[in-house]
Design brief:
The chain has 366 residues and is an alpha/beta fold. The chain contains 13 helices and twelve strands. Helix 1 packs parallel to helix 13 and helix 5 packs across helix 9. It starts with a strand and ends in a 10-residue tail after the last helix. The structure holds NADPH dihydro-nicotinamide-adenine-dinucleotide phosphate and (2R)-2,3-dihydroxypropanoic acid (DGY).
Length: 366
């Protein structure tokens, strides 16, 4: 297979490149789509491409008349026109399952980072501002802690840091970082910063959505979902519309695939339904969310907070989000562990080998 030309339009993971180099004639097109001369010169010899979920593969596929197989280094295939590939009898594969756990882990990580304000806490500690100081108690605070025999020592800044996502607009709420917090009645808290016991709504109860649900259950959360279809085998509550789901959960996790129907699925209506104490987590695709509306909803306090791993036009991230503390941003790293990226690479290589040896593909889509 050393003579089979396989094209990669972008550097991805070194192991994948090394392994492809060993087995095929790997052509690197790092300046695509800026320079097309190399593509023109090699178009008639390229039989396979390895694309990343964010590569603009649609145009690339059209430029390759001898293309037999598109292997996507990722599970989401919104970057590929599957119908067109079917028409041209081009096989398409992706990397399902091997990344499910890691993507779900990231969703939980983002929830915890947002609710417990971990990024902000980290910045606070690094800044050297963490000091203990006596805090003057208000009457309301005293009455709330009357049964606690503990010393309350903290500074105002620390109190705000410990007071959770919703407290950005309610800095008066009592909350501190000792073990005694449980003794304060839930109703007295204005922020919503516990994860345990929350209502988690999931859009897309597929492989990753299901893995998020199982993890959230371990945090004693109640789970509800919206998908194209109701899952009779699932005990979770199903909502036939996203707005109903958003109105009935505290944390909304977007884990569906990107299609015409799910493009912009998180609009103003959904953000308002989620509300000033609600948290939006997006690990699906950036295009699920109307980013302009997201910025307005956060700035106007209509949405409690957001944690995003994906963005509409990556790597562009709306500047307005940078100044907001009730936002956690990560650079599309759902599957980015060495083990998972290695497993994904093995699936890509396995599919290419199977195709060029005339065997059954491991993960065929088309
Ligand atoms: P699955 O195919 O298993 O799940 C996709 C889910 O999306 C299904 O539950 C499906 O519903 C749902 N869905 C599709 N269309 C609609 C719709 N119109 N309305 C509501 N729900 C819909 O895929 P995975 O779970 O493996 O992956 C999901 C997505 O996550 C990927 O497509 C990718 O975009 C993204 N992803 C992001 C990563 C990251 O790094 N941030 C990492 C990996 C994946 P139904 O079950 O009813 O068909
Ligand atoms: C996927 O697998 O779809 C991820 O977004 C990684 O690109």
């Amino acid at each position: 297979m050393e003579s089979v030309s396989v094209l990669m339009p972008r550097p991805t993971f070194p192991y994948l490149e090394q392994e492809l180099d060993k087995r095929f004639k790997l052509l690197r097109l790092w300046d695509y789509p800026h320079s097309t001369q190399f593509l023109k010169d090699n178009a008639n010899s390229i039989r396979a491409i390895v694309v990343n979920s964010v590569d603009p593969a649609k145009k690339l596929i059209e430029a390759l008349p001898k293309l037999e197989i598109v292997t996507n280094y990722g599970v989401g295939v919104d970057n590929i026109d599957l119908n067109r590939c079917k028409e041209r009898r081009i096989r398409v594969t992706n990397t399902p399952d091997v990344l499910t756990d890691e993507a779900a882990d990231l969703a939980i990580g983002l929830i915890l980072a947002l609710l417990r304000r971990l990024c902000e806490c980290d910045r606070y500690v690094r800044s050297g501002r963490w000091k203990l100081g006596a805090y003057k108690l208000t009457t309301k605070m005293k009455s709330l802690i009357c049964d606690c025999n503990c010393e309350i020592r903290m500074e105002a800044e620390e109190r705000v840091l410990c007071s959770g996502m919703g407290q950005h607009r309610h800095p008066s709420g009592l909350f501190w970082n000792g073990q005694r917090t449980n003794q304060i009645e839930r109703g007295d808290r204005e922020g919503k910063d516990d994860f345990s016991g929350k209502r988690v709504g999931i859009i897309g109860l597929g492989r990753i959505g299901m893995a998020v649900a199982r993890r959230a259950e371990a945090f004693n959360c109640s789970i509800c979902y919206h998908s194209r279809t109701k899952k009779p085998e699932s005990q979770y509550k199903y909502y036939p519309s996203v707005v109903e789901l958003a109105s009935n959960c505290d944390i909304l996790v977007v884990a569906c695939s990107l299609t015409k129907e799910t493009h912009g699925i998180i609009d103003r209506k959904i953000m308002d339904a989620l509300g000033p104490k609600g948290a939006l987590i997006n690990i699906g695709r950036g295009k699920h969310v109307d980013e302009k509306e997201l910025v307005s909803a956060l700035l106007e306090g209509r949405l409690g907070g957001a944690a995003m791993d994906v963005f509409e036009n990556e790597p562009h991230v709306p500047q307005e989000l940078f100044g907001l503390e009730n936002v956690v941003l990560s650079p599309h790293i759902g599957s980015a562990t060495v083990e998972t990226r290695t497993a994904m690479a093995d699936v890509v290589i396995g599919n290419l080998e199977a195709h060029f040896r005339g065997k059954t593909l491991l993960t065929p889509l088309v």
